[in-house]
UniProtKB/TrEMBL annotation:
Lineage of origin: Bacteria, Bacillati, Bacillota, Clostridia, Lachnospirales
Chain ranges of the Xylulose 5-phosphate/Fructose 6-phosphate phosphoketolase C-terminal domain: 589-789
GO terms, molecular function: aldehyde-lyase activity
Protein name: Probable phosphoketolase
Species for this entry: Butyribacter intestini
E.C. code: 4.1.2.-
Amino acid sequence: MANTDVVEKQPLTEDYLKKMDAYWRATNYLGAAQLYLLDNPLLREPLTMEHVKKKIVGHWGTVPGQNFIYVHLNRVIKKYDQDMILISGPGHGGNFFVANTYLEGTYSEVYPNISEDMDGLKKLCKQFSFPGGISSHVAPETPGSINEGGELGYSLAHSFGAVFDNPDLVVSCIVGDGEAETGPLATSWQCNKFLNPKTDGAVLPILHMNGYKISNPTVLSRIPHDELEHFFDGCGWKPYFVEGSEPMDMHKKMAEALDAAMDDIKAIQKDARENGNTKRPKWPMIVLRTPKGWTGPKVVDGNQIEDSFRAHQVPIMMDKPEHLDMLKEWLMSYHPEELFDENGKLIPELKALAPTGDKRIGSNPHANGGKLLRDLRLPDFREYGIDVPKPGAVEAQDMIELGGFVRDIFKLNEEERNFRIFGPDETMSNRLGKVFEVTNRDWNGEKLDTDEFLAQDGRVMDSMLSEHMCEGWLEGYLLTGRHGFFASYEAFIRVVDSMCAQHAKWLKVCNQLPWRQSIASLNLILSSNVWQQDHNGFTHQDPGFLDHIANKKSDVVRLYLPPDTNCLLSCFDHCIRSRDYVNVLVTSKHPRQQWLTMEQAVKHCTQGIGIWEWASNDQGQEPDLVMACCGDTPTLETLAAVTILRKAIPDIKIRVINVVDLMKLEPNTKHPHGLTDAEYDALFTKDKPIIFAFHGYHTLIHELTYRRTNRNIHVYGYQEEGTITTPFDMRVQNEIDRFNLVKNAISVLPQLGNTGAYLIQQMNDKLVEHKQYIHEYGIDLPEVRDWKWDL
């Protein structure tokens, strides 16, 4: 980043600290004014109820402490000429971030309508938590932010993701003491074991201890000091404590603590980069203990406000006449007449305390990662394909072949260092082991001779058994302008349902903000899927992530279920190149028959859905039956059912349709990938029976297709049945196996009359034979294990 600031040389004199305190008063004033004021933003007129919002919605308790931190980080940025962004974890209290970016000038540059004058101040205040305005929490609309404040727990994970491969960046992360009680945040203290001081940047956590949540005290605020210090020391941190409430004393202590922490960071990085010291250091952190609602109203209606849980949201509700005078007294306690000039602009001597240009927290390019994004160098995915002389002639493991493609992405981007894999201890299990031919797992802890593929500069982030951390790291990595993907067991991607939903919401909003630059898509590969859990069983069976993501905004989400290796390679290549999406790929990792040549796969995946002519026999005429499938296992069983039907009743005309892009099933009016009604009818017909074998819950297909003309659709998918059993028995228990599909196909063809009765009986016999065989031998019938496509 260009050096746009002269390094701050001014010592911490009393005069300088007083200026910082004045700047802090300005931020606190704007934080409170955004909560309450519709007009008269600097109280230049007598305050009346007409100037106050009719409904006051927002948070105050965390705001003054976070303002305090922001003001001090401005000084640090200037003193150390530091490339720094700020992540706010406490959740609501977005008025603090807006106030600070406004005072530094970034907000008005991004939103010229919110100008640095009286008119702009009026709009700034009115818009906050107001219809047609902005939300009450730190959000995508907030310049400088990459962490959504609507849900707690992910701030540190995002922070570490942001500094991986960013050696010059420091992320200051404010952790709320309420947020610290969430599972993801509690785990995040271990992230320091994955930070490489030579090639990564640094994270400076600032635990903001104001003592209370919405209604209760926080756990960490009510334990002894030595216990808290030992906790962080035991997690590998070097904590600095800044505690108190007297402003000038706190300014001095905070400045000294930040200087000590920054000096620690610089020393650690210098030792690693110049002396080659690879020993894991103890990184610094700060514990800032202040009153909740600091500097706000002390008592309202006989109740203590400051330093109590009552300061959490709105400290004065404005439902009594005397509250107007209390509000005025509170706002005037910041002495806005000393801070803003006659035009409503921050006075120059205070403005000079903020950094300038891209060094400002609100305008740092790392918080608008698309500005830094560079395309990956990608090999030709076609070179990693399987030679398929005819459908089903060869077997391969889809994820193993994908691993070769991913391995070479690492090789081609070795110098750029802008690509990583994320996943909780599952890279080998998900058959991506080829990547270890060129890189290792990131690990900065103790290593033993018996360990495998651990290295300080490893680029595979799977050494921590936490879906939350892997997802959070990846999001932080993407949001700061890099590329990657998350590979997970299908059932346990559900652990991060909410995180993925929040990211999808973030992208949806960013797509509406012209100043937010495009970032690489969030790519999720779900393997070890529901249909083969030989030794894991019922607990590892949950395809519901598809339902969860399908409900998100259609301009953001994409769902792909490639049926074989060549299709997976084509889909992955598309996803890793894409921008601003949440892409979900559901894949197989087990040996599977391969259906399409690479040329066929590219055409099929480009269209997302299509008739497999080689499996169909309705060419040139209306089909009697449409057999549709989506997913690797449903595809296999559908093709096996088709062979049974066509051999037993050759007069039946069957059309086989395979779906790769699940959102093709929705109308084009609902999803940009959706088929028009005419296109859908051309494939599925307007009235012929459809037997649809689906990877997940059958209700999702009904939801996607309920607007279509053809209502004669019968969907079979996962029914929450099955435990430790054979692969084929899993399909039988959920009725997507070939024998049940044949029975169901015959049942929807009334023109067969009684001619299908004998075939139904044969299928019932096979189902009995299957159960007897697996209970005796523990494996599937030979005719199932050895089945090949032979039409």
